[in-house]
Specification:
Elements (H helix, E strand, L loop, with lengths): L1 H17 L27 E5 L6 H11 L6 E4 L6 H5 L5 H4 L6 E3 L5 H4 L2 H9 L2 E4 L4 H8 L3 H11 L3 E5 L1 H4 L30 E5 L10 H7 L4 E5 L3 E5 L3 E6 L3 E4 L1 H11 L7 E3 L4 E3 L5 E2 L1
Parallel strand pairs: 1-5, 2-3, 2-4, 4-5, 6-7
Antiparallel strand pairs: 1-8, 7-10, 8-9, 9-12, 10-11, 12-13
Helix pairs in contact: 6-8
């Protein structure tokens, strides 16, 4: 493992040095009509999954485009943070109001019964966009997992809505609540609780290069081999639709594909390259399991 770390850390540093910070105009992924379903994501809507850190204005512009404009109803769910004062004072909304969003609502509770309040259900049914803030992803499942409101999240995606989330709000969109105590010893098997599985069979990690987490998904995929792993760096996102996901932003996303691991074992007897680095503009096709620039 130490040899892996030295080699990949050097590789990562080199690639980041060569990669310019892109403040490019982001072009939305075109709406796709796949001819066959895949095991990962088959909703009419989109996911914008952000790896944490500073979110560039371009991500909010992209989000607004899919919502239909900055005047369209957006629901912010800040429950991943434990800072109640921050929420009560509306601090969580500033990142949107400062960028011109004018139709914002908040859903926040620590109680599943309160989560199913008809007012919350109605907010999601009228929304054009949903945003999950950062913090601790376990707080999100504790408040909303298995609720009627959670069912409304899925119905929202079926209608073609867009959900954006950052940090904990990114991990929650995947299949497993990766992170937490599991990072203390990567050599031990850890039983992860399920996340919201907006995108199924995909374990999502965040802050990956900024916090030296590029190896943390290796044991996750070893113990959960039906999952693909995607680790996203800060100020970077993947845009998920029913055909592919696309990387946008300043840094990289790392792809951990057990199918590729099996091929490496056949060729070399072991896994030499546990992940592939995807730069802005790279796409991963759900059906072919291939990366295209």
């Amino acid at each position: 493992m130490k040899k892996f770390q030295i080699f990949f850390f050097s590789t990562v540093c080199f690639l980041l040095a060569m990669q310019p910070l892109r403040a490019q105009q982001i072009n939305p992924i075109k709406q796709n009509n796949p001819t066959q379903q895949n095991p990962y994501f088959n909703y009419a809507g989109k996911l914008i999954i952000v790896g944490g850190g500073n979110m560039p204005d371009s991500l909010f512009t992209f989000f607004a485009q899919y919502c239909g404009g900055k005047d369209q109803p957006v629901v912010y769910i800040p429950t991943a943070t434990s800072d109640e004062k921050y929420i009560q004072e509306g601090g969580h909304l500033v990142k949107f109001t400062s960028r011109g969003f004018t139709n914002l609502s908040t859903i926040h509770t620590r109680n599943k019964k309160e989560a199913d309040d008809p007012k919350n259900i109605e907010l999601i049914r009228k929304a054009k966009g949903i945003f999950f803030g950062g913090g601790d992803q376990a707080l999100l499942t504790a408040a909303y997992g298995g609720t009627k409101l959670y069912d409304e999240f899925l119905a929202f995606l079926k209608r073609g809505g867009v959900i954006m989330g950052t940090s904990a709000g990114a991990t929650i969109m995947g299949s497993l609540l990766v992170g937490g105590d599991a990072r203390n010893d990567l050599t031990k098997k850890y039983d992860f609780e399920p996340a919201f599985s907006f995108v199924q069979h995909v374990a999502i990690d965040q802050h990956v290069l900024a916090r030296n987490r590029q190896f943390d998904l290796i044991p996750v995929i070893e113990y959960y081999p039906t999952n693909i792993g995607v680790a996203i760096d800060e100020s970077t996102a993947i845009i998920v639709d029913a055909q592919q996901f696309k990387v946008i932003g300043a840094s990289y996303a790392l792809l951990f594909d057990p199918k590729d691991w099996e091929q490496q074992k056949k060729e070399w007897g072991r896994v030499i390259k546990p992940f592939k680095m995807m730069a802005a503009g790279d796409c991963f096709n759900w059906n072919t399991r291939k990366i295209t620039p």
